[in-house]
Amino acid sequence: MTAIQAVxxxxxxxxLVLALLCLPVVQNRNKKKISLGDGGDPQMNAAIRAxxxxxxxxxxxxxxxxxxxxxxxxxxxxxxxxALFTFARLYHAFGFLTAQTGGMGRRIGTTITLLVYLAISGxxxxxxxx
Length: 130
Known about the structure:
There is one protein chain. The chain is mostly helical. The protein has one domain: Four Helix Bundle (Hemerythrin (Met), subunit A). The chain has helices at residues 3-32, 42-70, 75-98, 104-129. Helix 2 packs antiparallel against helix 3 (75-98) and helix 3 runs antiparallel to helix 4. The chain is elongated. The model has no long low-confidence stretch (mean pLDDT 92).
């Protein structure tokens, strides 16, 4: 597997996660007859934010991984960063959908996401100036 194929793998998985995270939003909208916003419903708000949060974080990570692959970063590095990022986003979403407030899943997922973002950004800067 090449580095760019590894990026394709994590792009595919994370896009699938985004698609799956919209399901609780749609189900809650239909069940609770909420067409816009969260209708003041905590469960609806959690579903919206779980999906929205992933939509906010996933694109930049995938772009960063793709640029790293295109600049010659090895497949192992792409796999390490891609797998950690995917784990973090899944853990974060699980925490969002199962806990009423701040839970451990969200904290761990956020921390790992930020660490992967820092690693990607550091490698991108290093590749740009070296």
